[in-house]
Amino acid sequence: MESNNMIEVKNLTKKFGDFIAVDDISFEVKQSEVFGLLGPNGAGKSTTIRMLTTLIRPNDGTAKIGGYDVIKQDSKVRELIGLVSEKMIMYDRLTAKENLKFFGKLYNMPDSVLNPKIDELLEMLNLSKWKNSKVGTFSTGMRQRMNVIRALLNTPQVLFLDEPTLGLDPQSTVEIREFIKKLNREHKTTIILTTHMMNEADLLCDRIGIIDKGKIVALDTSANLKKTISGNGTTILKLEIPNLTSSLLNTIQSVKCVNSVSQENNSHIKIHATGDDAFDLIIDAVRAKKGKINSIEKLEPTLEDVFLKITGREVRDKADNKIVMKHGPGPKRFSQKQRVR
Amino acid sequence: MMSHSFRIAWKDLLEVFRNRMGLVLLILMPIFMMVMVGYIYPSDSSVSNVTVALVNEDVGYGGYTNASSTLIAILDTVTSNTDSITLTEAASFDELRTMIQRGDADAGIVIASDFTTSIMNGQQGTITLVTDQSNMQMSATLQAVLEEVFDQLGTALAQQNVQNLGVDPSNALAVVQPYNVETQGAIEGEFTYFDFVAPGIIAMTVMMSVMTGLPVAISEERESGTLDGMMVAPISRTAVILGKTLAQIGRGLLQGLIIIAIAVTIFGVTIHGNILLVFALLLLCVFSFVGLGIVLTSFTKDQETATMLMSTIMFPMMFLSGVFFPVEQMPWFMQAISKCLPLTYVADSLRKVMILGADITMLTTELAILIGFGTVMIAVAVPVFKKAITS
Ligand SMILES: Nc1ncnc2c1ncn2[C@@H]1O[C@H](COP(=O)(O)OP(=O)(O)OP(=O)(O)O)[C@@H](O)[C@H]1O
Ligand SMILES: [Mg+2]
Asked: Which of A28, A39, B373, B376 is most exposed, with minimal Cβ within 10 Å?
């Protein structure tokens, strides 16, 4: 490798028929970096991961992992990588150990290396007790930990994680996230993960690529991405209006300095606005329509705001516990996909 | 690469064995098949396009062979007036048997050496009907038809006899029914219905095993995502297909073993040929269907569609391959299709081995067709499968 780039993606494109799932994306991931692909359902995250892990062929563009081309040197690439896929890669009728031995043997690992490795990983992810139980009896959290163990059997230099915490309870989510951090810290594993959760990307990733409709629309560190908002004079305000109506919402939206309004619940709204006098203009507008303001709060920008600003839409997750009123100019929603076993 | 294939095959088989319900069905299905097909055997069906070989062993009486030649002449007239039966000749009983085993003849008629002598002496002349037991429907039908023919011939001749031959009228039987028609199979021994249906059912069960096993083995892995687990590992795609093929061979042979055991122990079926040859044929059966199965599953997105596609292909195949109904009775276009189906050749050759005790030299055509079909299909399957999983 000339640079210390572990992953180099150039103009990668994938079409399914006429539909362009991944549209001419390019990015690099440095050695030992944690890189996040953040985007709503259907953005093309999994498709990108599948191309990078040699599972599907791109229609155009190139990608190199550790200097090896994913098409021309696919076996070399496969030796370097581990994949925690969106789906569970485990056979329900086999025990934890049988599963891991099966997959380990595909990497030509002799028993003398494989067996200790399996024990070590089971221990590390607290599954030793279940070594001889069938995976079919495992909880979702246990299954996902198994999935991670499987991906680490060959001690990969690059680990791909496609929505690694999707469908997990808060505790398992924290466990998996901690483990990802630890892996990166202690083993210097390069990690590329996808998520539609802003806080997850914020928490784990050194750099984040925001992907929408197959295109990478922004790519930087979380801090820099947020700066694009505060830096250009955007103010994010959260207002509590107990007598909120849709006509009031329309009024606020029509205020000149307001870029977008989104509704959090029955009485709270979030406003993106520009200009020094945004604060006054909005309050005046609400007052003029007899709106009652219980509280007003200036928010620090989040990745969600970045996404909203760039795409004009929101990425949200049920887990954020937000309620949309049926009327009102609610943002387009992405339903959370159920994890498929 | 081979070791990866064996791993995959072993894993697949382990999954099969861990599926209790599946295992029970693996045993129950062939039993149901045997019982159903064994009893729903059609007892009267029409005959067409059959070839009957004639062996005339009659040595005559005092230089005359008029009794047998009269019979043959009448037979000739009868058969030339219909296109359902074609009459040919065979030199000896042994040749006749070989002809039946080879499929050159469907049945035979043997006129006993003392035929004329017996008739002249006012006794019954013996005619033996030789049938192909490997084709129960056909042989039963033919037997009925030929017995009917002899019956009529006999009555006609009896009247002649009384007038012309001056035989002792006290020998009533000889007058009324001068021919004694005996039936004999091409092979010695006792036969039951199950003997006749068993080879076809075995072939069919093994085919069904493969055709229903592959959607599970491939589509389900694809759908559930486990196939990705194999595909991200540095193993060749061909190794995966080979592993799947090996697993299906294992499963198919197991199913074959179960059904043969059931046929022999519960239904009293006897295997006349070499049991190893029977297994070799089953192996070939699996082999010839695996490639086809992989190609078909590759075209489908999910297991449900794959299973439906398999059934759609499987059912016509079962009916057109002569497992249930003799191919000879079908319209020409169905016969033509039948000739294109590998199951036809598996069922045919299994019948020849199990019932007629045929050896490998008598099966060269079938073997060549099956090996050829299997090889071509696997050769097609590899690129199709690769393309399907990476697009
Ligand atoms: N095999 C396929 N055939 C046709 N379309 C596909 C296929 N795989 C993905 N797509 C489409 O491509 C788009 C991107 O899918 P992808 O799975 O990459 O999205 P994602 O970002 O991973 O979303 P999610 O959060 O739902 O996992 C979707 O619209 C999807 O319907
Ligand atoms: Mg996805």
From this structure: B376
